[in-house]
Amino acid sequence: MRRFTTIFMILGFLLWPHVPAARAEESVPSAIQAALTWLHGQQRADGSFGGTSVTSDAVYTLALLGEDSDGPAWTGSDGVSALDALEALAPGYVTRGAGEAGKVLRAAALAGANPRAFGGTDLIALIEAAYDPATGRYHPDYLYRHTLAVEGLLRAGRPVPVKAYEALVDAQLPDGNWFWSFDGAKGDVDTTGRVLTLLAGIARQPQAASFANAAAYLDAAQLTSAGWGVNPAPDPNPANANSTALAVGGLRAAGYNPNAPRFQQGGVGGLQALLGFQEPSGAFVYIQQPGREEVRLMATLEALMALAQRRPLYLPLVLRGGEARSDPHASRGEARSDPRASRSEHPQMRFDTTGRI
User: Fold this and answer.
1) Which of 36, 9, 17 is CA-nearest to residue 277?
2) ∠ at Cα 51 (295, 244), nearest 5°?
3) Are strands 268-269 and 264-265 parallel, antiparallel or unpaired?
């Protein structure tokens, strides 16, 4: 029986790019499950998935999908859970800046940890201390890191100044996109998708005109493969899973169907293109070219974040110890203390030069 099940799964993966655009959404749950199965095999004995950045993304993604990163299913052979591994890694990482702290905060908060004492650090205080009321920024230069700081606070149920949102809206370039830094003159797909996800899907800001301009940019930037590269067409860059995931996730968050006719190329929609990066193993490759498939772990996590947009972005949070905390939009209360005793980086591709971390 397992043999036949595996054969059917493989056939399904091979046929995904040929599934009609209208039915692509039906493939999402099985794609998520296959990716999670593969992800289990990437967890290390110490509970981590590598360095702080990738482990943080893994814990965050698992929380978005309703997985318990502090439970036995996500505990390494050394007896350390993914959440505990992140807590052990965090201290030397979060002090680098508000963006790094925000990346860890969003994961810790969604996973139900105490952000006021995570790895011995008050992540909320760290980020709020970085805010510049004159500019509305949590990072003086890097817009991408600013978005992580804002999201971290929102996930933890903290209020975010209106000016912090205005800083993002004001940074939108005339053709509807955003650049990874605040002083950019030419935007990119990744940052545009990321800002859409934050403003529309998480912060739920009423910026319909801004979102429409961003959607038009992504429409124009779509490649003939129906995927997206970092830069819009006709720049010589192939479609990759990370950029495609960020574009698809941003469109979904803003209420746009990435498989609608306007986001189709040759009858293939954006969501179909994203699913097309998935291998029979369940992993997503970075670029579908020999020798350019890695880094699969980062591509898979990015794809899962985008696919999770079909679910409520704010999940009920269960703190360690079993007490539930409500949606951050409904309550501004702080997380309770961990009832138990409190306890280099994964290779980055282009992150260090785009303000991403």
Assistant:
1) 17
2) 35
3) antiparallel
Is the pLDDT at 198 greater than 80? The verdict is yes
Q: Is the previous residue joined to 295 through a cis bond, with omega within 30 degrees of 0?
A: yes
**DSSP 3-state helix, strand, coil percentages of the chain (rounded to 5)?**
50, 5, 45
Number of Cβ atoms within 10 Å of the Cβ of 164: 22
Is residue 36 within 8 A of residue 278, CB to CB? The reply is no
Q: For residue 318, what are the β-bridge partners?
A: 324
Q: Cα(185)–Cα(321) distance, rounded to whole angstroms? A: 49
Q: How far, CA to CA in Å, does 37 sit from each of 43, 109, 193, 230, 233?
A: 11, 24, 26, 28, 34
By the 8 A CB rule, do 285 and 299 touch? yes
Q: Is the pLDDT of residue 14 over 60?
A: no
Strands (E), the chain: 264-265, 268-269, 317-318, 324-325
| b/e burial code for range 8-26 (CB count within 10 A of at least 16 → b) | ebeebbeebbebebeebbe
251/257 Cα distance (integer angstroms): 7
Run of H or E residues at 40: helix 28-40
Centre a 10 Å sphere on the Cβ of residue 309 and count the other Cβ atoms it contains.
Answer: 21
pTM of the predicted protein model: 0.83
| Cβ-contact 105, 156 below 8 angstroms | yes
287-312: pLDDT as tens digits: 988 878 778 999 999 999 999 975 33
Identify the sign of the CA torsion 32, 252, 194, 166.
negative
